[in-house]
Model the fold of this input.
Amino acid sequence: MSPSARTYLSQALNIMEKHSLLRRKVDWSDLRSRAFSQARGAQKRADTYGAIHSALNALGDGHSVFWEPEEATERYGASVVKFDGLKGRSLKSGVGYISLPGVLGSQEVSDQYVRQGRDGVARAGAGEACGWVVDLRSNTGGNMWPMLAVVGPILGDGTVGAFVDADGNKSVWSIKHGSPYEDGKLVGWGDGRPFAKSAPPVAVLTSKRTGSSGEAVVVAFRGRPDTRFFGEQTYGVPTGNKPYHLADGAVLLLTEAKDADRTGRAYDAPIPPDVEIVKDPRPVARNRDEVLQAAQSWLLKQAACRQP
Done:
């Protein structure tokens, strides 16, 4: 191997060994030996990419990934994105509905997501809604903070979760005036629009596609009073990734923590709903949304939404 290739691979492996959530369960001598064997003869940094991919897979967390420079630029470089799935509306009997897709990109993309999402919440009724449906079925992940900035007023102020690393250290998520904070520091976007009706009942919709940061939003609602989950179990990676930008523009996204809810329960596997509803495959049911119907039925039985 050339010195530059050896240094590049060593740096990537050092990051994994120091920060991986599962670092205490890995035989690092064996993993390093296999990585350098796979990259034998590498002359350029790019010649080590395969070994880095393999090493990340060997960690076994099911979430860590390596983006080569072109992919990293594509994922982080977008400045304008159309969020078709990010919308709010008012359902029957005063129930508000907001659907949250995943989001990843530049700060400008996150800002755009929060503006569009908060506008959607306002259109759905904001303070006038008796209860809420938060639809995460198409949320495959990305950056959780813009998502929490949109649903912050629905979650309500206070601690809503945390990242917990391999040593038990916590990084606390909280909501204040409808905006997300990490360890007491404002993440961004200023105060969310306050609700006239505090602590409304909430139905959260999930599917097997709900993953990563989408699952972090699920976790933020876990343990919240008057909250119920409908649909399918989530994808199964409710863990926190941190990006490490390498010398050539590649990005190592390393799983470093489990998501924990406000009660302290940590997650690292699929999260089951309270009410499991599997889509009816028959053509007659193609346009029927049984999950949303069940969520609405439950909400309309809650005291806040019950008709006099």
About this structure: The chain has two domains: 3-60, 87-241+257-301. The two ends are 76 Å apart (CA to CA).
